[in-house]
Backbone:
């Protein structure tokens, strides 16, 4: 779960920084909705690429919110 939180944090920062740079250097305004859509899509794609998300209530809830297939959520065996 810690990795997922770090991923979300870095993706949010990146997209805000990118929108800021577009506003400063290209005089282009970016709508908050489009930034949010880009953030959600990128997080979803990265989570799908991971393929193995720990099985927990939090992860199931996030998977439903981010439209991540339940097949990606697996139980991790700790030895």
Residues:
């Amino acid at each position: 779960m810690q990795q997922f939180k770090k991923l979300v944090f870095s993706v949010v920062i990146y997209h805000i920084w990118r929108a800021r740079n577009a506003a400063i250097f290209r005089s282009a305004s970016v709508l908050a909705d489009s930034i949010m859509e880009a953030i959600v899509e990128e997080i979803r794609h990265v989570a799908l690429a991971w393929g193995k998300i720990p099985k927990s209530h939090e992860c199931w809830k996030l998977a439903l919110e981010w439209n991540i297939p339940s097949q990606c959520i697996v139980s991790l065996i700790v030895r």
Q: What stands out?
A: The mean pLDDT is 79. Strands lie at 53-54, 73-74. The chain has three helices and two strands.
